[in-house]
């Protein structure tokens, strides 16, 4: 006898009714979210492909809405932009942009949302690492579609240098962030008396490895904020992280990481709240490092003409905290729960 292992995606499982009007509303809301994420844009001078939040949105939408609604949201997003609505990166729109050098990536969002949603409906969204694997498959589809189309406009240039290599670090961070949110949401909602979601409130503890990894990452943030971040192009002098201003933000993030460990140790933070707390710390510190590194590389007028060791140490510390938070955020498997085979 065939057993149906399909489950519902997180947002769909929460809905009291699932009529056509509700589905249309979800699709339009998801396309609007993708359009909003597209406005977070960083242009690179050597490629027509910008860094945006679209990839994050496409992967997250697929995991939250499932295969059909997720893909429908991305199709709606593409149609809105092609029809002239300013929903693409930087408020761009029109048929010329939709079929231009970056058009393949937008089409790739459709395939990625479907695949991620398909796997989420089969239990891959229960744990951060299995969802990360599902999203990695979606990311590969985005690259495949984007690079294939970008090659038409490459004019003899290396298409991987134009549309792949510069985006791997940022896309990895966006993938890990998206993969941590859905299982955390399920864990948090599972502790509430809501239908459709099994309770997963039992078996949560702040395990020893996570506590020490948080402390290690926070220590790296402190060290990185004190090390040189780069060289001032005008004075040719070593620039300390604290001088930049963002160094103080990094120190505050490190302090919050230590506070989070103390609160969880004393039992004031449930593990999924500790996970969200530390994920936020990692995102703030990672943004400081990512923002400064990108501008140091792409803008010759930027005061960080060359990158020092401080930013690299901060980036490593943020990754350590984030990976520990993802691991802590993995819910305990409950009896009879669906796991990917």
Could you please describe the fold and organization of this structure?
The protein is mostly helical and 341 residues long. It folds into two domains: 10-190, Arp2/3 complex 21 kDa subunit ARPC3, CATH 1.10.1760.20; 208-328. The chain is 64% helix and 4% strand. The chain has 13 helices and three strands, in the order ααααααααααββααβα. The protein has helices at 10-14, 20-38, 54-65, 67-83, 95-98, 103-124, 128-150, 159-163, 168-190, 208-226, 246-265, 271-298, 309-328; strands at residues 228-232, 238-240, 304-307. It has a three-stranded antiparallel sheet. Strand 1 and strand 2 (238-240) form a beta hairpin. Helix 11 packs antiparallel against helix 12 (271-298). The radius of gyration is 21 Å and the shape is globular. It starts with 9 loop residues before the first helix and ends in a 13-residue tail after the last helix.
Q: How is this fold's topology laid out?
A:
Elements: H1 10-14, H2 20-38, H3 54-65, H4 67-83, H5 95-98, H6 103-124, H7 128-150, H8 159-163, H9 168-190, H10 208-226, E1 228-232, E2 238-240, H11 246-265, H12 271-298, E3 304-307, H13 309-328
Antiparallel strand pairs: 1-2, 1-3
Helix pairs in contact: 2-3, 2-4, 3-4, 3-6, 3-9, 4-6, 6-7, 7-9, 9-12, 9-13, 10-11, 10-13, 11-12, 12-13
Concise structural overview:
64% of the residues lie in helices and 4% in strands.
List its traits.
341 residues; mainly alpha; Arp2/3 complex 21 kDa subunit ARPC3; 2 domains; 3-stranded antiparallel beta sheet; 13 helices; disordered C terminus
């Amino acid at each position: 006898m065939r057993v149906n292992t399909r489950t519902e995606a997180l947002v769909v499982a929460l809905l009291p009714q699932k009529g056509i009007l509700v589905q249309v509303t979800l699709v339009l809301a998801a396309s609007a979210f993708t359009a909003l994420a597209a406005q977070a844009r960083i242009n690179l001078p050597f490629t027509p492909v910008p860094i945006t939040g679209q990839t994050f949105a496409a992967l997250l939408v697929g995991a939250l809405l499932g295969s059909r609604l997720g893909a429908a949201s991305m199709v709606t997003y593409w149609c809105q932009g092609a029809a002239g609505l300013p929903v693409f990166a930087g408020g761009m729109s029109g048929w010329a942009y939709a079929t231009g050098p970056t058009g393949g990536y937008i089409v790739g969002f459709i395939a990625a949302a479907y695949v991620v949603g398909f796997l989420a409906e089969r239990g891959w969204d229960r744990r951060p690492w299995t969802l990360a694997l599902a999203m990695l498959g979606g990311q590969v589809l985005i690259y495949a579609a984007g690079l294939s189309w970008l090659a038409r406009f490459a004019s003899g240039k290396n298409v991987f240098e134009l549309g792949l290599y510069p985006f791997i670090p940022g896309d990895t961070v966006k993938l890990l962030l998206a993969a941590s949110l859905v299982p955390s949401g399920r864990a948090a909602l599972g502790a509430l008396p809501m239908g459709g979601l099994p309770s997963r409130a039992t078996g949560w503890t702040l395990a020893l490895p996570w506590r020490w990894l948080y402390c290690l990452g926070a220590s790296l943030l402190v060290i990185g904020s004190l090390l040189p971040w780069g060289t001032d192009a005008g004075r040719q002098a070593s620039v300390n992280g604290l001088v930049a201003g963002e160094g103080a933000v990094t120190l505050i993030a490190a302090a919050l990481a230590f506070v989070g460990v103390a609160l969880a140790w004393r039992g004031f933070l449930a593990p999924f709240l500790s996970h969200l707390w530390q994920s936020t710390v990692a995102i703030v510190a990672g943004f400081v490092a990512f923002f400064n590194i990108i501008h140091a590389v792409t803008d010759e007028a930027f005061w960080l003409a060359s990158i020092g060791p401080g930013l690299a140490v901060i980036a490593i510390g943020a990754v350590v905290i984030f990976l520990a938070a993802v691991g802590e955020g993995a819910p305990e498997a409950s009896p009879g729960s669906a796991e990917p085979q």
